[in-house]
Amino acid sequence: MVSGNKAGLVKYPGAGCVVEFMQGNSPQIAWVMEEQAGKLRLLLPNRRETTLAANRVLPWAGPQYGAGKNRDEACALLAERKQAREALAPSVNPEELWELAQGEVEKASAVWLAELAQSEPDVDHVAACGQALLACKTHFRFQPPEFEIFSAEEVERRRVEAEIKREREELIGGGAEWFRLLWDSSQQYKRSPDAAFIPPEPVRSRLEQLLRARILDPETLEDDALWKQVSKGLPDDPHLPLLLAQAWGIVPEHYNFWLARAEYEEGDAWSSAFEQESNELVALSSSFELKNLPGLFLSIDSSSTRDIDDAFDIALRAEGGWSVDVALACPALAWSFGSPLDKAVARRATSIYLPEGDSHMMPECLGTGAFSLLAGQVRPVFLLHCEVDQEGTLISCRPDAGRSALTANLSYVDCEAALAGEEGAANPAVPYLDRLRMGLAFAEARQKRRVADGAVIIEKPDVDISLSGEGADIEVELEPAPSTPNAQLLVSEMMILANAGLAMWAKEQQVPLLYRTQDVVVPREFAGVWRSAPDIARVVRAMAPASLDTMPRPHAGMGLPAYSPVTSPLRRYSDLVNEAQALGMLLSGAPRWDADGLAGLLPGLRERLDEAGLVQRMRPRYWKFLYIRQQARKHGEECCWEAEVAEENDAFVSISLPREQLMARARRRLFGEKVFPGQQFKVRLGKVNPLRGEMTVMAAREV
Predict the structure, then answer these.
(1) Helix 340-348 / helix 595-635 crossing angle, nearest 10 deg
(2) Would you state the torsion angle of the CA atoms of residues 368, 369, 374, 378, taken in this order, to the nearest 10 degrees?
(3) What is Dmax (Cα atoms) for the chain?
């Protein structure tokens, strides 16, 4: 052990002694000018004076030069000692000292620790050692007048904490500045900031991970404190992570974050992992011994439809009314519920159709291939044979299964033209005109019956959204979809009939099924077919959204006592389940699931359908708003839009854009003194935000 005198240390510093003390979490050197009653008057290197309690002096006071030095001499000596200690600092390795001392003693003085590295340390060596020990907080804790020497376990814990703290400080410092640059870029529609400003690794990857996580879940509490710090000063925008990520180039312009949040993989690449299982499923379906089903089955879909899962045949009943056969694709025949393929399909839950492309629930080799009802190709079929009287009342429904080949795949446009009397030779629907007319007569009677039973039917014109270009250069075009009201009425009433018929049969046979229910009381005067914006706004307020359930409760909007979806087994998992339930009864005398088993499927299925449904609603809406913004930028103040007043009150007016099928809300004063529902206007729109689905009515002129 080195003695204090031999090292040049001073136990009780007086005038003329060099001392150090802690200030601002770092040691400061000073000259003692006077000591009195435990108080020291100190001269600092900057020639200022301060007072300090003697017990705050660090335990390596010295050397002692004696009183009588003037300020210049004292400051020169302080500079000399400070320079000497700074020169010695690089030679002190506190971690090596810890290695030597750890396990030997629990506490030691700076002198003792300095002696481990220097046989005869002087006061400058001890001071340099003490300063290094003070800075090495992972290995030592200063407990005056000695240093506590941490155990190996404590050192590792503190090392990890220090590393986390260092990374966090780098994240906050570098991240906040980088995010500010990205935000400015996103608002000025510039390219990404210069790559030279991107924080280095691992900060870069951590910031990217942070943005991706918050795009997927803006409400996540994970890293919430970090996010608040790096985004401090930026607007409280719910889409801030997305905007920053787009400006950075992490995600592309027009990124479909709704799809990402739903964890729904677009396209068909996901299905490659299930190629063998899909092939085995097709082979197994072909091995079933099924009867051949007679009938002239026709499908009617849009011209782009590839997953054809429903068709019909119709005949007149001798006693009046119609016999309607609805033939459905039959993937449930050999479907292996609980298999890896089934779990993947159940997680997708439904097909999603977007302007940028379709994503099918099933692998395309099944949904648009082996099980799709393509004309002339024999397929397994699930059949619902329904008897309907001339008033449109469903009398009975009987399910069946077999094999059949569709006679024709027709389009809405061709069927509409044929029904309208446009019997051109090139129209493939003309040979089936008698059946189409019979189907339309049935549909009209059936819809009238449902309205009499309280159905609330809302009809809006469809719009076709087309995209051209890529990335930030995508251009959106909107065109009214071809008007095919008769063909669409024919198909929709056929499908509603089949779903209602299955529910009727299941109740009679006590077969558990999934149901779409809307068990609310709707005012009787709301029953009918509504097309105008004011009427739609009025009736929608009285309606509650339908929900998926296991109990056959009424569906008020449909005007039905029960409605069990089954007509889209290639596109919706609930329909696949219901088809499996009915097939189980037909082929084995028992459904696939009992009531409890079916109820167990419900929570997960509801969640996935809701998430996919949000994508299906919000993504086309995004493209519509982007179209309006693009048109406004191209044409400026000359760009006006047809609008109809849907609702009004003393402060606000809600308008409908009938062509674009969008709604907007504006101050009443923009529309003049007299405003009433149904009034027609030309409006100018601005401040369009496609992400938020918001736009501002800048001006309005009555038509």
Answers:
(1) 50
(2) -150
(3) 131
- C-beta of residue 32 within 8 angstroms of C-beta of residue 19: yes
- Residues with Cβ within 8 Å of 500's Cβ and at least 6 positions away in sequence, in order, are 394, 397, 558, 560, 562, 563, 564
The C-alpha atoms of residue 662 and residue 692 are separated, in whole angstroms, by: 13
Phi (first) and psi of residue 398, to 5 degrees: -130, 120
Residue 530 CA to its chain's centroid (Å): 34
Give whole-number Cα distances, 430 to 3, 188, 442, in Å.
Answer: 114, 57, 19
DSSP 501-546: HHHHHHHHHT----EEEB-----GGG-EEE-SHHHHHHHHTT----
Residue 431: φ, ψ to 5°? -60, -15
Which DSSP state fits 446? H
Q: How many other CB atoms are there within 10 angstroms of residue 522's CB atom? A: 18
Residue 4 pLDDT greater than 80, yes or no: no
Q: Are the CB atoms for 15 and 43 separated by under 8 Å?
A: no
Task: Tokens for 188, please give them.
Answer: 């000025």
**Residue with tokens 């739609």, as numbered in its chain:** 536
Rounded Cα distance between 169 and 172, Å, is 5
Structure tokens at 140: 């030592």
Is residue 464 a contact partner of residue 303, using CB atoms and an 8 Å limit?
Answer: no
Asked if residue 615 lies in contact with residue 352, where contact means CB atoms within 8 angstroms, the answer is yes
- Banded model confidence at residue 189, pLDDT cuts 50, 70, 90: low
The gap from C-alpha 116 to its chain's centroid, in whole angstroms, comes to 60
d(CA 63, CA 18) in angstroms, rounded, equals 6
- 3-state DSSP helix/strand/coil % of the chain, to nearest 5: 45, 25, 35
Torsion, CA 377, CA 380, CA 382, CA 385, rounded to 10: 60
What pLDDT digit, counting tens, does each position of 624-656 carry?
999 999 999 999 888 999 999 999 999 999 999
Cis status, amide bond into 431, omega within 30 of 0: no
Paired sense of beta strands 547-549 and 515-517, if any: antiparallel
Burial status of residue 493 (CB atoms within 10 A of its CB: 0-12, 13-18, 19 or more) = buried
CB 410 within 8 A of CB 299: yes
- Tokens at residue 509, please? 């046979």
CA 213 to centroid of chain Cα atoms:
9
Report residue 8 as tokens.
Answer: 């040049």
DSSP 54-116: GGGB-S----B--S---HHHHHHHHHHHHHHHHHHGGG--HHHHHHHHTTT-SEE-HHHHHHH
Rounded to two decimals, what is the model's pTM?
0.82
16: left (phi over 0), alpha (psi -120 to 50) or beta: left
Determine contact, residues 176/184, Cβ cutoff 8 Å: no
Per-residue pLDDT tens digits for 356-381: 999 999 999 999 999 999 999 999 99
Cα 62 from Cα 666, distance rounded (Å) = 79
Closest CA to 561 of 490, 637, 500: 500
Q: Which helix (H) or strand (E) holds 462?
A: none
- CB neighbours of residue 590 within 10 Å: 11
Amino acid, res. 422 = E
User: Which tokens go with 508?
Assistant: 């009679």
Query: Which residue has 């020497």 as its token pair?
Result: 149
Distance CA(611)–CA(605), nearest Å, equals 10
Backbone dihedral region for residue 27 (phi beyond 0: left; psi -120 to 50: alpha; all else: beta): beta
Rounded to an integer, the average pLDDT of 575-602 is 96
Residue 407 identity (one-letter amino acid): T
β-pairing, 408-411 with 298-301? parallel
146: which strand partners? 143
The DSSP secondary-structure symbol of 430 reads: G
